[in-house]
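Recap from last week: sequence in, structure out.
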Amino acid sequence: MNVTADMTEKEILNDFKENYGKVRELLDEQSKNDPENEPYLSKYKAKGILINMRDSLLALSPDANLDKLKHDAMLGAVLMNIGVVDMETEELTSSEKVLMEAVALLSPNASKPEIVNTLINVYNNLGILWSNRDEPEKAKMHLLNAKGLYESFKCTLQMPLPIEQIFNNENVAGDFMVLEKAHTLTLYYLAQVYGSLKENLKSAIYCHVTLRRQLQYSDYEPIDWALNSATLSQFFAEQNGFFQSRHHLAAASTILEQYEAKLLESESEDEVFLAKKETLKHRSADVARCWAKYCLLLMTASKARLMNDADKLSDAITDMSNLELEDHENICGGDIKNLIFPDLDVTKFENKIGDKFLLTYQDARVVFLSCQSWLNKAKEYYKLDTLASDYIELVQDSSQSYSYLAFFEEDDERRAKMHKRRVDMLEDLIKEINPTYYLQYCRQLWYELGEVYSDILNIKLDKLNKMTAKTIPHMLKKINLLCEKSIENYDHFLDSVKDKNGIMPRKLEFDLIRPVISAYAFIGRNSMKRISLDKAAQLSYARKSFDSYQAVVDICKNDEDAAIMMKEEFSLCHEMVKILPIQIKKHETDLLV
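Predicted structure tokens:
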């Protein structure tokens, strides 16, 4: 762009239009095909043109044939694009400098239709820049400036003018969508920034508002939108916001259903269609997993509520209306409950499952069956032979759903059968996976099997204690077998943590402290639950129990973190280490008699 003082405004604008078109072509299209050894080739070419445009505009004399407002709008757009290119080519210092130049230039006329959209985009990019520098507070400042500018401009009832309309030099109407899109990006970036600041509730609300606006303006990609909505639902469920969580999941499924219907209208079977179909199948499985997680979280929260507050069940809030939010920015009118998509009919999916805490077995069974249905849908895509890690997690989720259902079941025999179902699915799974490649999952499965066998054992011991008739030998055999299977799986877990010489590390990884100590404690307890009239067997059980309790004591004495984290277990095991030698001595004496 090379302007001279005697050029007319039309000529200046046409020159700008031509060069700006080249810039957009380079940045939007050609940059996608840049070679790997020159990834920024097109961006650097675009920057060269932009710098020439900037210098030419700055060289214009005050009495040039160009309206001052148009001049500033064009120069501001050029500076913003230079700043964005600098940021994308990792020249952050230069990017900040140029973007702040744009703020200084545009701020005096911030509320003008020719200026407002560019300035909002400048603030948005400053927010991105400071986020990239891990300075979320500074990012938030610029993004709130963008939000405030949008809100104040909307009050003027003016229509924004995008830069493309300014250099067309025609009396054309503005385009409110460019402003709305820029504002939606502001809200999206604020969601990320508040996430970085650990203000998770505010971050989630900004995510919701972003999704709602995308629906409102039909400015979204269906699969991405559905996945984002389903992912957001998990946060709400974790806050006991099951009303909001279910709504976002139902919205995700509704959008996917609409997308699938539209996709299947196409009679094409080309590669693009097949790729879209495969992506839909994949992401539908992911949304199904989110539904299953919703079910599990609802069962988990209901169980915790019944266990912790059995006498005071009046607190039944499942819509987050009990949470406080400092809504200085008026992002939801102070009403957290009102986080819905009013323009989307989601009743088909909402009606399939409730959003209230569970109180009875029948309540839990409905949620359990829904959970199993969603898990089976997810398994249609995630197979053991192709996506093993995901498949393993689906089986683990299925096992957990049986565990929660068993909590609500009052009949001991039926509870034992539910746990036996868990044993079957976990043992079938662990036979199929190689510990060399899936050690973490094998550890989880061994540990869970140890727990499940313990749960069944306790049910059988309770039954035995209630029996009035003669002790049935079959029952004793069953109890001993359950003890052995529980101990065997805990031993597998512990062996996987030991070194090649069978020695437990002196200091455990932090995440292993609780399961390792718990495993040893369970082995200690279950060893003493075995029933035998054989004196040698009784002695071996007592020794096994002592060794397990002693292992806990040794770990806690050598590792302060373990002693603090597992204070109660440490204390109990310490007592057992004092008591058991007396029993062991007695068994040894009995053997000599």
